[in-house]
Amino acid sequence: MAITVEFLGATAEVTGSCHLVTAGDKKILLDCGLIQGRSDDERRNRDAFPFDPRTIDAVVLSHAHIDHSGRLPMLVKAGFNGFIYTHRACRDLCRIMLKDSAFLYEKDVEWENKKRARKGLKLVDALYTVDDAKLAMSHFKGLVYQQKKRILPNVTIRLNDAGHILGSSIVELWLEDEGVQKKLVFSGDLGRSGMPILEDPTDIHDADLVVMESTYGDRLHRSWQETQDEISEVLSTATNGSGNILIPAFAVGRTQEILYLFAKYYSEWSLDRWQIFLDSPLAIEATRIFMQHSDLFDDDMLALWQQNKHQSILPNLHISRTTNQSIALNRIHSGAIIIAGSGMCTGGRIKQHLKHNVWRSDCHVIISGFQAQGTLGRSLVDGASNIKLWGETVRVAASIHTIGGLSAHADQAGLINWYKQFDHSPPLVLVHGEQEAQVCLQERLQTETNANVSIATYGQKLDLNAF
Q1: Spans of all domains in the chain
Q2: What's the whole-number mean pLDDT along residues 118-137?
Q3: Is 225 helix (H, G, I), strand (E, B) or coil?
Q4: Which pTM does this prediction carry?
Q5: Which CATH architecture has domain 3-219+408-466?
Q6: How many whole angstroms separate alpha carbon 433 and alpha carbon 370?
């Protein structure tokens, strides 16, 4: 018997988080996320799991983002019958996010099968269905921060606020086997100190092995003040023009941050000159869940919420729930700020808004989050002169603004500072980052600490008894 961790996702890439922990005869999965990006990458989601789901005793989910949670319905469908432990706010977000993900898969397959039927080709199944997502939710157990929970006879966990999105967790695991106890700490996705709405990431001080994300391991974010100034400048420039502003935004986390900043600086940024549209059913539901968990807000957000909770947080905010309401926005050629998903422009309503606006020189697009390789959002960030939308080539004449300072991920300095809070520099393994970012972070950590820092490779298994 042994205590091991095996890396089965988010190795040399940012999506598909999945790590298998074994303690004696018990197996625990840390995250079970979808692979996102290029079509070839996303096809890997259909591959069989590299383990028998029926042998997994429990899942511990760090947070609700689909690249961490999105394969859970498949796991249950394939025979997993244990509990999925996560923060209660994460559980509530997963209820809407997994359902939304399944709905999109069903719609995509419906469209694909119409084309296949006309060609006489074999029909395909959705990756998973809404019913599969509902079944997965029946396995969730909601926890709170800072309380130890024995989830198996030889496995105890504690969730700590990661400050990334609502209900995101840093996971501490105490693992026992044949009288030996080892402690593994999994960062999940780490947020940033001073980030709007949420508390700062929790410092952890002891571990035998640390597994840490490295998304922005090769760069520093702009300061919050610089970021706010940059948004103000974009809004000022756009106000003097005659077009619309499009903001592709992740439904959970980024959308709520943008609404918070718009409310806080409403007068200073002259937002009364605009009509603001939240055009994402998922983001609308996620915002409602955020408000149900106001106990997790930081002091500034809590004060703003208490001041505005009986009315709209923005006087000129319009909620576009239905498809017809979304289509109606295509007739607005000036004065609209449209916040819509998806955050990487890979689907959702933002693609329609790009089709109707991105070819116009008076349009502005604010990129507010990480754009994975192979996504439409990444193409815009990289300066593409044309993009493809439903097979049609569309010219990009809009001004593209990348506001990196809004990221919900810690930057290089934040990652290093979080790790430095551990006593005695425990061994560190980097996951959830592109290779260039990981190598850069590894070199900086080895320069600034005495740590043994390695980069996880797919299928690599580490024995914690060796540390």
Answers
A1: 3-219+408-466, 224-406
A2: 96
A3: helix
A4: 0.91
A5: 4-Layer Sandwich (3.60)
A6: 11
